[in-house]
Design a protein that fits this description.
The protein is an all-alpha fold. It is 69% helix and 0% strand.
Length: 487
């Protein structure tokens, strides 16, 4: 029988934690900052289309993950599903790919914390802020899973409240109630708007939109430690889809209505300069003088939340790989509180060493960051592939969908759409580099693809694994006792 999370880590994430973690995972600097560059590139209409299409894809991805996670709720689920439903080599590659992605992302986030803090303390040593952020994140993750869940709940709530306030202020500004000038929808027909660059412009924004939604798959990681995964996971998936569409669609609509796509402020949006966040600009247009400081605090919360989630996700993935035999067994040991401390320490050390390379080897640091750039989309591809194989095996073996605690709608359209869009995003990441023959840039951008292929092929060559026949795939659900369900 498959070893499920209650035999190892402790379940302690409540339903409200799972819902808010899933929602908060996709609300961050991608929305607060990078959305401006998407509007500048594709125009207001193009940005809306790209984000809506990517949101629909993410919904199908979440339902695919939900079907597998309710049938087999385990921590570090992606590697397990790849192993059981596709090929052990896929599980091995997916596990290390995802662990590497978040371990590097933690380092990037703690570096960003220092940049954000410079807004208030421009002359303070940046490494101190990064060090404090890493200590804080480690402390939250080493306590108990409930501490992580509660922290993420409140940080995600701050982001959600900010968006509600932004939407209220934005619509009042559009109608001229705030800011003294009604913009209406004139910016949607300004010059080449609403669609700038046509279909290629929309496709180019897929990449930005995709990065904005990175983190939604965390609900699959939390399933292994949720009090009642077969209730909380489907509930989170259903709620998150509508909230994503609502938040992203309305937020981008407000930004595009108030700020013309030709504004240079949108072109230069970066996480290190909150003064040109489209949210900040909208607040300033409405006459709110303290907008920059408030948004800087919100962006700081988002970055810490991302690092906190990254530490949790990478730790659980390393723990799961140890349980599957893909990593040293010592990383599968847990403390009395149910925390895989050695896996947490290893992830923290890697994040710290990566962060230090930004001082001692900036070129190496940039390569590491680039190497983690596409790993999230590769993980999404693996999730969709695993679900496609799981459902086909489930039906082929004579099972009916009524046996599943939760089943994804629109199969096989959902996972196939995810597979196609993931390929489009991965290979469309930097088409210009191919057009100009810039092989160095191609290497930096796409380095994660050959790395994953090397992991996959080396494991396959050493262990002689094969694609698991549909009739041989184990689709049996995990047996959860009442104590497993609610502790």
């Amino acid at each position: 029988m498959v070893k499920t999370a209650p035999e190892h880590v402790k379940r302690g994430l409540k339903s409200r934690h799972v819902s808010m973690i899933a929602l908060g995972g996709c609300i961050g600097t991608g929305l607060f900052v990078a959305s401006g560059s998407a509007i500048h590139t594709a125009g207001p209409g193009g940005a809306l289309v790209a984000y809506i299409l990517m949101g629909i894809m993410v919904y199908f991805l979440m339902t695919s993950l939900g079907e597998m996670a309710t049938n087999l709720p385990v921590s570090g689920s992606f590697a397990t599903y790849g192993t059981k439903y596709v090929d052990p080599a896929v599980g091995f590659a997916m596990g290390w790919n995802y662990w590497f992605n978040w371990a590097i992302t933690v380092a990037v986030d703690i570096s960003t914390v220092a940049l954000v803090m410079q807004f208030w303390f421009p002359h303070f040593p940046t490494w101190i802020w990064s060090g404090l952020a890493l200590i804080l994140i480690f402390g939250i993750n080493v306590l108990a899973v409930s501490a992580f869940g509660e922290t993420e709940f409140w940080m995600s709530l701050i982001k959600v409240v900010t968006i509600f306030i932004f939407l209220g202020v934005g619509f009042l500004t559009i109608f001229g109630i705030m800011g003294g000038h009604a913009t209406g929808l004139t910016n949607f027909t300004y010059r080449q708007a609403p669609f700038v660059g046509g279909v290629p412009g929309i496709i180019s924004v897929f990449v930005v939109a995709g990065f904005s939604f990175q983190g939604t798959e965390l609900v699959g990681i939390t399933a292994g430690e949720a009090d009642d995964p077969r209730h909380s996971v489907p509930k989170a998936i259903h709620e998150v889809f509508w909230r994503i569409i609502l938040f992203y669609f309305l937020a981008i609509f407000v930004i595009a209505a108030i700020i013309p796509y030709t504004s240079p402020d949108l072109l230069g949006s970066t996480a290190s300069d909150v003064s040109i966040s489209p949210f900040t600009i909208v607040f300033k247009r409405a006459g709110l003088a303290a907008a920059a400081s408030v948004m800087n605090a919100v962006i700081l919360t988002s970055v810490i939340s991302s690092a906190n989630s990254g530490m949790y996700a990478s730790t659980r993935m390393l723990y799961s790989m140890a349980d599957e035999g893909y990593a040293p067994k010592r990383f599968g040991r847990v403390s009395r509180r149910g925390i895989p401390v050695l896996a947490l320490l290893a992830t923290t050390v890697v994040s710290l060493l990566t962060f230090l390379t930004s001082f001692f080897g900036p070129k190496l640091y940039l390569w590491l960051v680039a190497a983690s750039g596409l790993t999230g989309f590769i993980a999404w591809f693996g999730i969709a592939l695993s679900h496609y194989r799981f459902r086909r095996a489930f039906v082929k073996q004579g099972h009916t969908l009524s046996e599943l605690k939760y089943h994804a709608q629109w199969f096989p359209f959902g996972p196939i759409m995810c597979l196609i869009l993931c390929i489009v995003v991965i290979f469309g990441q930097d088409v210009g580099a191919f057009a100009h023959g810039n092989w160095f840039q191609i290497g930096v951008t796409y380095i994660s693809v050959p790395l994953v292929l090397i992991l996959y092929l080396s494991y396959k060559w050493i262990h002689h694994t094969k694609l698991i026949p549909l009739d041989d795939i184990d689709v049996s659900p995990a047996q959860l006792t009442d104590d497993n369900q609610k502790q």
